[in-house]
Design brief:
The protein is an alpha/beta fold. It has eight helices and nine strands. Strand 4, helix 4 and strand 5 form a beta-alpha-beta unit. The structure holds NADP nicotinamide-adenine-dinucleotide phosphate (NAP).
Length: 251
Amino acid sequence: MTTPSFRLDGKVALVTGGSRGLGRAIALGFAESGADVVVSSRRADACEEVAAEIRWRGRRALAVGAHVGDWADCERLIARTVEEMGRLDVLVNNAGIAPVPPSLPEISEELFEKTIAVNLKGPMRLTGLASAHLPPGGVIINVSSKASLRPSPHTVVYAAAKAGLNALTMAASQELGPRGIRVNAIVCGPFHTDSFDRSVPTAELAQALSARITLGRIGSADEIVGTALYLASDASAFMTGALLCLDGGGA
Ligand SMILES: NC(=O)c1ccc[n+]([C@@H]2O[C@H](COP(=O)([O-])OP(=O)(O)OC[C@H]3O[C@@H](n4cnc5c(N)ncnc54)[C@H](OP(=O)(O)O)[C@@H]3O)[C@@H](O)[C@H]2O)c1
């Protein structure tokens, strides 16, 4: 029996929302495992800071400013990746937003459209564009949310978008599987990131949330890296269409 490898040497990975939070952790973790990385978010300057950290680790890196909810930006992002990095092996659809709607009747068209655009439209378009370049052995990882499985009134639009992302994961895995391209999702529970910490501003709230988690705590951003590496590497060569919960055993 050969020991499975979690290495990504010689591969090029594109991480959306790579400028901070879970995306930054994934981008740096992939670089430490041998990948060259394209870091993308709306703010090219913030992506450039992460790209500099990746180069410091001895890997190639490219920072690209792009709004994933914009069809043309998605095209530009994939085109620049392939032109400047020479190939694309791993796409991580990580960029996401979770604005809290006031109540069902008060949900505005603007809130609805921007939530769907970032969490679902962008991943759908990037999946289509990337699929033209991913080689056999290529991988797509979608960063979903536990809200997609356990929605609540204050996550309704976000939850619906992430449920759509789960559906995209399963459908794309079927379309791309015959070409040897795998598509899986990480269904995240709560992780400490800037935006999460802003949405849970008090220690009491954080404590109440932690009490509902089997491991009794909120995850740290670095704790997504192992699962992302597993899905990106040959260690998960027989896994596709899966929704992997990474939630500390949350209820
Ligand atoms: N943290 C959690 O507890 C948690 C739980 C469940 C699921 N998730 C999911 O995990 C992913 C990352 O979450 P996070 O907590 O790390 O978020 P975060 O800290 O707010 O980071 C979000 C990232 O997405 C980028 N982004 C936002 N809007 C964008 C757009 N329109 N186009 C391109 N990039 C955009 C941001 O950069 P710019 O502002 O520069 O664009 C940033 O890099 C999201 O999909 C989120 O839904 C997180």
